[in-house]
Amino acid sequence: MLKDIQKKLLLKYPLIWNTKFVPMLVVGILFHVLYFGIGYLNGSINFTGKYYNESEISAVMLGILIAVLIVIIWLVNYFKNNSLKSFYKKSKNALFYEWFQIFVICFLLVSFFIPYSIGKQLHERSYFSKTEATQRCKTIALADLFIDGYFAQTEVDSTKSILKDTVIDGEYQYTKLSYKDSMLFQGKKYAQYSLINRRTYDFSLISREEDSLNVLEVKNWLINNQQEKVKELMDDYLKIVNEHKLKTNLKTNKWFKEVYNYPNFSNFSYIKPYFEEYEAEKSYSSYEVVTAVPQYGNQNKYSNYFVQQDILKSSYDTISKAHTNVFLEFEAFLAYLCGALGLSLLLFSFKVTTGKSWLIAVVCVGVLNILFGIFTLFVSSSTTYFYLVLITFGIMKIYFASIYLQRKGIGLSRIVLNILLWSFPFMIPIVYGLIMDYYKSFEYSIEYGYNSPEYDWLQENFVNMLTINFIFCVVILFFMSRIIRNWKGIAEE
Q1: Is the four-CA dihedral 417, 367, 358, 16 of positive or negative sign?
Q2: Left, alpha or beta for 425 (phi > 0: left; psi -120 to 50: alpha)?
């Protein structure tokens, strides 16, 4: 069927036939479907945590290999026929359409990770609905208060000498603040290392405001001695632990007895948030275990009780992020667009010039970068390199314009055209970066202690600049493709 389609395209749409756009479009879509399936399979969560899933790295490397092989096969067939070397009549915008088809093909080949990540995230979401996942995350987070949750920072002790961070003679002077060893809750004083001052694990499904309200609710249980509420929380938590067949020697009554110490809640035992056998082997996951005692220097010791809270938090953190993260960040999508743009320009420049001039241009770019780098080292200015790039780009643009307008001979314009096509997408980012560097004045930072508002604005709008730059490149290519079509008619000498 594809052969029949290609024959019809050859007769009616030779440009689409020449680029092999239709078969490559089919290959690209199948490539995406394949990686959506691979991503969905790799989205399985290992709740036991006995091994770490490294299949994503292998999938990415395999995808790159497949993409490279597809590109090679495509280019062999695409470069067989060069309509610019034949006497086919070409419309004014034919070269732009050709570039656009190359761009679409390149985008399909470089963006295979998009369907992979979507498939993976969909599988991670499929374990529990958002409502159920939120409730489970709430239970796991609150249970951390009675396992090994970290302690909140107390208020600064104003009775001791405290200096704020200051700038003296152009140098920052730092001081260590002192904090109180107690905190107030509901008008009563509690020790810094009491259950009342503990915090919970942050899941993205639970907002900070909601998390604070949840913690406040549990602390009210404690000060009001609502033991049944605490035991109910522990029961719900252990049901989740047992459901996933995680290791623990906790039972609700034993756990409650170890940690519940009404009314001060300061004399309690720590529960190990990991299983020692797995901890020794380091074979369960890459999740870093952070314990409360070494972190804050508390003298309480761990009991002989343990639960694999580290694995549970890691697994549900993945589910939580799957529900809250967007399927595709705009910045990531823009990065794929820019990558496809760069690859398409490399192939397009090869198509509109010659292989010899293309290779010479590659060598010239390498030599110029080396020379610019050496000169920049001598002058000891990081921006010198970028100014040299802008000057060189300007000279090459003037040279190519003179060849195009005078039409006396093509000269070195093939080599220059290659470099211009590769370089112009970088011009706006380079100028933008130089402007940012100008406003990032060290003197300003020293005098006021922060960056200039102009620099902050430029930094905040960096992604917007890249978006505008991409649109600008497409528009410039539209007009440049017309110039290249006319430039091809210039005689060799």
Answers
A1: negative
A2: alpha
**Strand pairing of 171-173 and 166-168?**
antiparallel
What phi and psi values does residue 182 have, to the nearest 5 degrees? -150, 170
Please provide the size of the chain in residues.
493
182 bridge partner residues:
191
Contact present, 229 and 347 (Cβ < 8 Å)? no
Rounded to an integer, what distance in angstroms lies between the CA atom of residue 305 and that of residue 311? 16
Q: What is the pTM of this model?
A: 0.81
User: Quick check: helix, strand or coil at residue 472?
Assistant: helix
Q: Count CB neighbours of 215 within 10 A.
A: 19
Residues 248-261 as b/e (b if ≥16 CB within 10 A, e otherwise) read bebebeebeebbbe
Query: What integer is the mean pLDDT of 325-338?
Result: 93
Pair (358, 443) in one structural domain: yes
pLDDT digits (tens, 9 = 90+) for 5-50: 666 766 666 777 888 888 899 999 999 999 999 999 999 888 887 5
Q: What is the mean pLDDT of residues 358-367?
A: 94
**What DSSP letter does each residue of 385-441 carry, written as one string?**
HHHHHHHHHHHHHHHHHHHHHH-S--TTHHHHHHHHHHHHHHHHHHHHHHHHHHHS-
DSSP 112-155: THHHHHHHHHHHHHHTS-HHHHHHHHHHHHHHGGGTTPPBPP--
Tell me the DSSP string of 24-80: HHHHHHHHHHHHHHHHHHHT---TT-SS---HHHHHHHHHHHHHHHHHHHHHHHHTT
**Could you give the 3-state DSSP secondary structure of residue 289?**
coil
Residue-range definition of the domain harbouring residue 165? 144-317
Residue 306 sits at φ, ψ, to 5 deg, of: -145, 160
φ, ψ of residue 293 to 5 degrees: the values are -65, -55
Residue 100 placed within a domain:
no
CB hemisphere CA count around 300 (13 angstroms): 25
Query: Tell me: the pLDDT tens digits for 129-183?
Result: 999 999 999 999 999 999 888 888 777 766 664 555 554 444 555 556 677 777 8
Q: Are 306 and 442 in contact (CB under 8 A)?
A: no
Other C-beta atoms within 10 Å of 195: how many?
22
Residues 6+ apart with CB under 8 A from 479: none
Beta-carbon count within 10 A of 386 CB: 19
**Residues contacting 343, CB < 8 A, separation 6+:** 106, 110
Residue 76 belongs to a domain: no
Q: Are residues 266 and 403 in the same domain?
A: no
Task: Inform me whether the pLDDT recorded for 394 exceeds 70.
Answer: yes
Q: Are residues 231 and 160 in the same domain?
A: yes
